[in-house]
Design goal:
This protein has 198 residues and is mainly α. The protein contains six helices and no strands. It is flat, with a radius of gyration of 31 Å. The relative contact order is 0.07.
Length: 198
């Protein structure tokens, strides 16, 4: 029975890995199709070049979020994130400027905007990937301090009586302030009626 459960668990883990790989593959194909099937060039030419930059940046960050969500060992995942940031920064600007009129007066402004978004994406990928690798490196270092688990739960039941008294006091004050407010409204209403019908 135990061997059967172990085999089922192994099959379940393999199915999870296959699903994650399928999701990542699908996301990569969607991002690739977005760029190569003419959606980005159509946005650049028909709507505006700035919108093409925003669209590319959004799709780049979407793919980054999907890469962050994959289950993988720390070191390969960190290297994948860093490589993705570098490759996106290298290839997307070249692809983007294939569809821009190089005689446009806004070319320098577009270049600065695109460079800004590409650097933000690169820093996000490098930061996420670098922190994952640093975490992996820290746990494998020789002077790593293992956390000692404390099996004694913290007992805060002694504070419950104090909390009940405090809550009752707040409730009394709230009720008193409500009564005073209602009395003030009633007095103002009576005075207003007397003034109106005088």
């Amino acid at each position: 029975m135990i061997i059967f459960r172990a085999r089922l668990t192994g099959v379940h883990c393999k199915m999870k890995n296959i699903r994650l790989i399928a999701k990542l593959g699908l996301a990569t194909m969607v991002a690739a199709a977005f760029f190569t099937l003419g959606i980005t060039p159509w946005i650049i030419e028909k709507i505006s070049p700035e919108m093409g930059i925003y669209t590319g940046a959004i799709s780049g960050f979407t793919l980054l979020i999907l890469l962050l969500d994959i289950r993988q060992m720390r070191f390969p995942k960190g290297m994948i994130l860093i490589a993705y940031g570098v490759l996106f920064q290298v290839f997307f600007p070249k692809y983007y400027f294939l569809f821009i009129d190089h005689t446009s007066p806004d070319l320098e402004n577009l270049s600065v905007q695109l460079d800004l978004y590409m650097q933000v994406l690169l820093f996000a990928c490098a930061g996420a990937g670098g922190s994952i690798i640093a975490n992996y490196a820290d746990k494998s270092s020789s002077d790593y301090e293992h956390k000692i688990q404390n099996n004694n739960p913290i007992d805060n039941t002694k504070h419950i009586d104090h909390l009940i008294k405090f809550t009752n006091r707040i409730e009394k004050r709230t009720n008193l302030s409500l009564l005073i407010s209602l009395a003030a409204v009633a007095i103002n209403l009576v005075v207003a009626i007397l003034i109106i019908f005088k």
